[in-house]
Design goal:
By secondary structure, the chain is mostly helical. It has helices at 7-10, 26-36, 50-58, 62-69, 82-91, 118-129, 135-143, 147-159, 163-170, 175-181, 185-202, 205-216, 224-234, 240-247, 250-262, 272-285, 289-307, 315-327, 331-344, 350-361, 365-376, 381-397, 401-415, 420-429; strands at 40-45, 73-78, 98-102, 108-113. Strands 2-1-3-4 form a four-stranded mixed β-sheet, with helices on both faces. Helix 17 (289-307) packs antiparallel against helix 18 and helix 20 runs antiparallel to helix 21 (365-376).
Length: 433
């Protein structure tokens, strides 16, 4: 998404949003769940995750949350902590936030992806905890000929980012089930979603564009921005006229989506940011510059109106405003806002890092470095590497290569084993001596 990512150091900073007391590790949470015969609900999140801000302040609180906590073992998994990142890889989690329910016996009960309004979230959790969403249960029902269960199995594979595995399972169904399955709209749509995942895994733009177009023709609700984003990306290499012909038919449906589910008093879909950015990207791709700026300014104005000048009132909304200003290239407004965000949220590394990074990317190395150094004091785990990467770029540009090499060596020594890919990119940041 635009969007999708140590342990001891985490306790030295205040979390980006309200923390919940709980087990020290996911292994401990699973052991507790087994011991107490309770399901474990894992919240995969991160300090920089804007959707996680939304969930913490708007959903994971109140009476419904208090009632839920009595029934489960809750664990917050931090994408920047090595042990939790390893669990993300094990469970094939690619999207933050992702909520994974695991039964006392260790079987996954199901998962929920992305931010959700509370009126959607709690019924979904209840459905997971009932056990009916278990993949093994869904498969048993599907083999009996239930097309609803066939669709549920395919949707579960899609949530787990297992496109090839899902289609391979479908091919094992009795022919009498497979032959009639495409007559069911939900099954047909679920299959196209898996084909879209396969195309993305294979980096096959033609397959992505074909599947995404078919998925967008269905009733996909709040997933529309993500799928349209896939289509926009897959058509990027097409000639302008061809690309416009591919994308223009999507604009009426997406405008309707914005007007009925996003730009309303009570949005049906919680992820406003993805909707706005995808709308702007769509307009840019089809050459509608005025439309691109209009949707961004509308989002900017609405965000400011809802914040009432108080950036602490809703961090998700405040961070959305920042991103809209970045996308609109509103430099002066953005400079003012980012300094206000640093003041409003001083306890973590995020806004010092983002402002320092932007200054470095614009060639203002001396100005950006102090902000990155401030961020480094509060960074931990994987985000230590992110901060170090831009500190190294700034130091190198300022002819301070000895300091840069020392920073790379220190960071690699501390984080290299847990995050080898990120540290390799960090090492590549500094030219060889």
């Amino acid at each position: 998404m635009k969007r999708l990512l140590a342990a001891a150091l985490l306790t030295l900073i205040a979390p980006a949003y309200a923390a919940h007391e709980g087990p020290a590790s996911l292994d401990a949470a699973l052991a507790q769940g087994k011991r107490e015969h309770k399901p474990v609900l894992v919240d995969f999140q991160a300090v920089w995750c804007y959707s996680c801000y939304y969930m913490a302040s708007h959903v994971l609180n109140g009476k419904e949350w208090n009632d839920l906590e009595k029934k489960i073992v809750f664990y917050e998994a931090d994408a920047d902590k090595p042990a939790d990142k390893a669990w993300m890889n094990k469970l094939n989690v690619h999207f933050l936030p992702t909520y994974v329910a695991i039964g006392p016996d260790g079987e996954e009960l199901g998962r929920i992806l992305a931010e959700q309004p509370r009126e959607k979230f709690y019924p979904q959790v209840a459905a997971l905890l009932s056990g009916d969403a278990r993949l093994s249960h869904q498969k048993d029902e599907a083999v009996k000929g239930s097309l609803a269960s066939v669709a549920e199995v395919l949707d579960t594979y899609q949530q787990r980012y297992q496109g090839k595995e899902g289609m391979a399972w479908f091919d094992t169904l009795p022919s009498m089930v497979r032959n009639v399955s495409d007559q069911d709209k939900r099954v047909a749509l679920a299959k196209q979603k898996l084909l879209l995942l396969e195309g993305k895994a294979d980096k096959n733009d033609a397959a992505i564009a074909s599947a995404a177009t078919k998925v967008l023709a269905g009733n996909i609700g709040c997933d529309r921005p993500y799928v349209l984003d896939d289509l926009i990306g897959a058509t990027a290499a097409q000639p302008p006229a061809t690309r416009q012909a591919s994308l223009s038919p999507q604009k009426p449906a997406f405008d309707e989506y914005l007007s009925t589910q996003i730009f309303v008093a009570s949005p049906t879909c919680a992820d406003q940011r993805s909707a706005v950015l995808t709308a702007a990207d769509l307009d840019a791709a089809i050459g509608d510059t005025a439309g691109e700026q209009a949707v961004l300014r509308k989002a900017i104005d609405l965000s400011r109106e809802k914040l009432h000048g108080d950036l602490k009132s809703d961090r998700n909304l405040a961070d959305n405003l920042r991103v809209y200003l970045v996308r609109a290239k509103a430099g002066d407004e953005l400079d003012t806002l980012e300094k206000q965000l640093i003041a409003a949220y001083p306890s973590d590394y995020v806004y010092n890092y983002r402002y320092g990074r932007r200054l470095v990317e614009s060639g203002k190395f001396a100005e950006g470095l102090p902000y990155l150094e401030a961020a480094a004091k509060k960074a931990y785990g994987a985000n230590t590497i992110s901060v170090a990467t831009y500190r190294v770029k700034a130091l190198h540009a300022l002819n301070r290569d000895a300091e840069a090499r020392k920073l790379v060596a220190t960071t690699v020594a501390a984080q290299g084993a847990a995050f080898p890919e990120q540290t390799k990119k960090l090492q590549e940041t500094l030219p060889s001596a």
